[in-house]
Amino acid sequence: MTALQGQTGSIADILLVEVKDAIAHLTLNRPEKRNALNDDLIAAIDAFFAAVPADTRAIVVSGAGGHFSSGLDLSQHVARQPLDVMAHSRNWHRVMARIANSPIPVIAAMNGAVMGGGLEFGATCHVRVAEENVRFQMPEGLRGIFVGGGGSVRISKLIGPDRMTEMMLTGRTYSGAEGERLGLAHHVVPEGQALAKAFELAGRIAKNSPTINAFIIEAIAQIGTMPPEAGFYAESLTAALSQSGPDAEEGLRAFLEKRPPVFR
Hints:
By secondary structure, this protein is α/β, with parallel strands linked by helices. Helices cover 46% and strands 16% of the residues. It has 11 helices and 10 strands. The strands form 2 sheets. It has a 7-stranded mixed sheet, with helices on both faces. Strands 6-8-9 form a 3-stranded mixed sheet. Helix 2 (82-100) links the parallel strand 4 (58-63) and strand 5. Helix 2 runs parallel beside helix 3 (117-124). The radius of gyration is 19 Å and the shape is globular. The two termini are 26 Å apart.
């Protein structure tokens, strides 16, 4: 296991990285702060996704110490000028977009606190596993601030603007089971089992064609923003590209030969 350190060069291992069997495991490692996302941790996440280790086919993200992430580290934001806040928010948008647009699928193993910026981070991941004890919350309204990490767009797409508004106005907390029902999570598991389930899913995803995984992530995201006829055309184009390469040949041949495909 290695560590990516923040811009300050702190000796604290704030992001642990372990790669095994084509799966990279990122651990947010600020347990004393419930893995609050400070500037250094965001920089470390950015650095990882800017240069993902070669041959990685899936990425699992989890938090140390019983929590995924309690959100933005507010100790860095008590007194900032409007332009500073905007620059900070736009940097978050850039880093979160790097994760959301990663051609390598990202699976979040969520437990404990998944709040504010932690939920914004989780919403960028392509597959989300939540333990029953998860506390999904957007408490910014209670703190006198507005979201700045992309939640007004990404979380609203998952649960709808109306429910996002109520969630922020009241500080309402949702459990893992409630979050799955709403769309904040795809899978809900008993306490202590999120990481194992995330690795199970990552192992399954890693066996897919890397090209098709990338197409699924990138094409569906783009098609979702298009008018229907443009979306249909983009779908046909993506299908044509996917079915004219060696992965399609291997997948179809394996199906006919009744064996698992082996994608390169």
